[in-house]
Design a protein that fits this description.
The protein has 190 residues and is an alpha/beta fold. The chain contains six helices and six strands. It has a six-stranded parallel sheet.
Amino acid sequence: MTLTPALFLDRDGVINIDKGYVHQAAECEFVEGIFDLVKRANSLDYKVIVVTNQAGIARGYYTEAQFLDFSAWMKNEFSRNQAHIDEIYFCPHHPVHGLGEYHTECDCRKPAPGMFLKAQAAFNIDMQASVMVGDNISDLEAAIAAGVGHLNLFISNRIDRTITGIEQVQAKELQIKAVTSLSEVTLPSI
């Protein structure tokens, strides 16, 4: 059985500008370069997998059905831009602020690796050859725990945020590449 590399993407802050609990098309503004990055991954036969914590579901701000509708819309927007997302994995839980069934400690909420491991099993992914792009250290910690070989901390210049000193130290210790443009993400050829 042949292993396939994947491009793992966090959603809010990497695919769309993080405006806080985005779950409707009208709220969505795509990050510059995201369609090109996904097209590049597609051309190299990478699986493209979104791994996203969705505390807004846990907090009751929107439902899983609303999230799934938005995700279908988002995948369609990628298709309209000649880019393909293979799957979107999401964690609807929160160990502190979750309501009802969503108030739980789980193995899918990043920095836990659960979403990555589900994707690995479903798509026969070569984790060491795979790439992760996240905008928080917890995204990369989850990728490390799952054995992802290439790590990118994305800090968009479109938001009022810079890499903090602590993040710089953590990124160096964890061998994470800091990028300010999605065009800087390297996708090793297979």
